[in-house]
Every structure is written in C-alpha cells, then in structure tokens.
Design a protein that fits this description.
Layout lengths: L27 H19 L10 E3 L2 H4 L3 E3 L5 H7 L22 H17 L17 H5 L8 H4 L25 H13 L1 H19 L1
Antiparallel strand pairs: 1-2
Length: 215
C-alpha cells in the first residue's frame, strides 16, 4: 500500500524480547501443597475453635439470582437482639456482625435467628483461665465430655438452597383466557373508574332534562 500525504512513517516494533516476559506456573503443585499445609497449621493453632466465623443466610441480589441463598457478611443487630446475644459478645464467640445490613422481611429474620440459636446451642465456651468460670462458660463436665469438634462452621451449619416455591404446570391445567383479552379488560376497567363521575353527572343531567320536558 502506497503512503500518501505528509503522515507519520510506520515504524512497527516486531522484535521485542517476549521470552523474558513469559510467566509460567510450574510452581502450581508446590503452591497447592503449601496452601494446604498453612490451612492445617492454622486449624491446629486455633483448635478447638473453628477456623471460620458464623455467617448469616442472605439472598443474592437481582431478580435473576434472588432464588438462591448464600452466606452474608454478618448478622444484623435486630437478629442478635431477637436471639438474645449481646452485640459486643457476638464477635468474641465466632459470630460475624454487620451493623449496616437491614432486615427487609420477617422470613429472613426468622431464618437467621434460628441459625443463631442453633449455633448457640451447640457452642461450648471454654473458660479463659482454668478454675475461673464466668457467666456463659461451659462447666468442667461439658469441657471433659467434648468429643466431636467441628473445625469449620461452614461444614457444621451448612447453607443449602431449598426447592423453589413454584412448579411448572401442564398446558391443559392453565386457566381459560379472558374473553376479549386481559389487556383490553384492564383498560376498560381503568377507563370506567376514571370516567365514573363524568358519566354519572351526564346521566343525571339527562334525567333532569327528561323530567323537565314532561312537565
């Protein structure tokens, strides 16, 4: 292609040393093992406490995904109050708190309150110092009888998606169509409600005129 006019001369750089800039991941198996070992070391360091915190059940945003539930950031202050757990105590016993989140339905509030109560019933609080029991701490018998310790709250109290509340129906089970169309019927009803006063006034005036003509 010929170059026309007084424009910049093409100066293409096709001789870059790309071999020096290639990133390879030959260390992936080693990193995988290192991450696993660090997880096990963390679990052993915090044992018998679980490695994660208790999270609330929340619905995903937008109409497309709101049929699914997932773990939220933290429990609301209303949920903690309904479950009878002080807001300052909750973070110290492995419960995540989010003071900004609001409960927009009684269903979400009830679900998370039940989740908090189930967690509190299974929780065994070890005393910080031996022989110094505080209110809410487990007794010596409860501490000595501990057998099944859960290393992860996620596995102990999992969040599962339930069946949706609607199901498909057969074509024969569908209700009969509205005569004249549902849209037309709605528009007529709307017009009837809007013009009711005018039509009543017009009918009354017509009746008065007819009564006056008879006299």
């Amino acid at each position: 292609m010929a170059i026309k006019h007084n424009q910049q001369i093409p100066h293409n750089h096709f001789r870059k040393d790309w071999q020096r800039r290639v990133r390879v991941h030959f260390d992936q198996p080693g990193r995988k093992l290192r991450r696993r070992n660090s997880r096990l070391a963390k679990a052993a360091a915090v044992a018998p406490r679980p490695v994660d915190k208790l999270r609330p059940i929340v619905r995903c945003p937008t109409i497309k995904y709101n049929r699914r539930v997932r773990a939220g950031r933290g429990f609301t202050l209303t949920e903690l109050k309904a479950a009878g757990i002080p807001r300052k105590l909750a973070p110290t016993i492995g419960i995540s708190v989010d003071p900004r989140r609001q409960n927009l339905s009684t269903e979400s509030l009830a679900v998370n309150v039940e989740r908090l109560k189930a967690y509190r019933a299974r929780l065994i609080l070890f005393p910080r110092k031996l022989g110094q029991h505080k209110k809410g701490d487990a007794s010596k018998e409860e501490v000595s009888n501990v057998k099944d310790v859960v290393s992860s709250v996620r596995s102990g109290l999992p969040i599962t998606n339930t069946e949706s509340g609607f199901a498909e129906i057969k074509k024969g089970d569908m209700p009969s169509a509205v005569e004249g169309g549902a849209y037309r019927k709605l528009r007529d009803a709307r017009a009837e409600a809007r013009n009711m006063g005018k039509r009543e006034k017009r009918a009354k005036e017509k009746a008065d005129e007819a009564a006056a003509a008879k006299k």
